[in-house]
Design goal:
Blueprint (H helix, E strand, L loop, with lengths): L6 H30 L5 H4 L5 H53 L3 H22 L2 E2 L2 E2 L14 H15 L4 H13 L4 H6 L10 E2 L5 E2 L8 H18 L5 H58 L3 H26 L8
Antiparallel strand pairs: 1-2, 3-4
Length: 337
């Protein structure tokens, strides 16, 4: 006899199909949340209001951008600080030695110290031509241009100025060197220094903070350092007529270097203050980032214990639906897996 399917049987079948679909969906969502740790249906969780989450994501992207700038600012400041430390060491070591040599009646000693000045001048120029991230750090806004060509060019420029002025004694040479380095229209400003007289553009390290790098190789402290070393080197590279004249020029070189120490210390202190501020902003930005990440986690993270409970409930529900279906159709549960 033919089997008859009643409307009751069809309704039960449809009801079981819907129950199976719901249970499978719940099983999938719970499993996904357990495996990823994130809510499967975020829209339902936030009731369709994504504004707070969007604000958090935007803030995190902004802080991430600032973090890169902070790293760059810290690197530039540290490189500048290292360079000035190197220069300060040359100044402290050379200044007193030049004065001591000028007081001794030792022509050979003057020659040695003069050659030492030339060597230190080259080291200082190389330090001032240092780059960070491919950009000159002591050239102000002209970050693509090193502030100087070479120590040899600097020495040749000064020696040329001395020759052009007809300077033949220490006093005349000191006047030429002073003018060359200190006069705004002198050779240093117009010929040797190739950087900008304006500081490089500040770096924005937060919404309200900027890192300003105002120190350049055009600073008076650097002029005095270079002036002292050049004067010391001139002692053996010029035609001074006597030991006394050479001694006088060397003493001037040493005093000039010692006078630059305080200026260098102030410059280093200013950069140190900048480094401290960059570090403070870095710590503050990290704290803000952690706060936003915690707030985001509160929104998007799933409750693993609750998801496990739902997973178990969905498994029980699915097993129940399959059992009922199997009884109704006399099919094996294995056919549905």
């Amino acid at each position: 006899m033919m089997s008859v399917i009643s409307f009751g049987d069809m309704a039960s079948t449809l009801r079981n199909m819907r129950a199976t679909s719901v249970a499978k969906q719940q099983l999938h969502q719970a499993g996904q949340e357990i495996s990823t740790g994130l809510k499967a249906d975020l829209r339902q969780s936030v009731s369709g209001n994504f504004a707070p989450l969007s604000h958090i994501d935007r803030s995190l992207r902004t802080l991430s951008s600032y973090s890169y700038v902070i790293i760059e600012a810290g690197h530039i400041a540290q490189t500048m600080q290292n360079g000035l430390e190197t220069i300060a060491n040359h100044v402290s070591q050379s200044g007193a030695s030049l004065i001591t040599a000028s007081a001794l009646f030792d022509t050979n000693g003057l020659s040695i110290q003069s050659n030492d000045s030339a060597s230190r001048l080259e080291s200082v120029i190389n330090t001032l031509n240092t780059r960070a991230n491919g950009r000159a750090i002591y050239s102000g806004q002209s970050t693509s241009q090193a502030p100087f060509t070479s120590a040899d060019d600097l020495m040749n420029d000064v020696l040329g100025a001395i020759a052009a002025a007809g300077a033949v004694n220490a006093n005349d040479m000191m006047t030429v060197i002073d003018t060359w380095f200190d006069d705004p229209s002198g050779g240093f400003a117009t010929t040797s220094y190739l950087g900008s007289t304006s500081p490089r553009s500040p770096l924005h390290i937060s919404e309200s903070d900027v890192a300003k790098f105002e120190f350049t190789a055009n600073d008076d402290s650097i002029r005095q350092v270079l002036k002292g070393l050049v004067a010391g080197a001139v002692v053996s590279q010029s035609a001074l007529p006597s030991f006394e004249e050479k001694s006088k020029l060397m003493q001037y070189a040493g005093q000039t270097l010692l006078g630059a120490e305080a200026q260098l210390s102030k410059a280093r202190a200013n950069i140190g203050t900048l480094q401290e501020r960059v570090e403070e902003v870095s710590v503050a930005n990290q704290a803000r980032r952690f706060g936003f990440e915690a707030a985001k986690s509160e929104i998007v993270s799933a409750d693993i214990y609750e998801a496990s409970t739902r997973l178990n409930q969905a498994e029980v529900q699915l097993d129940l639906v399959y059992s009922i279906t199997a009884r109704m159709s006399r099919l094996s549960l294995a056919d549905y897996i």
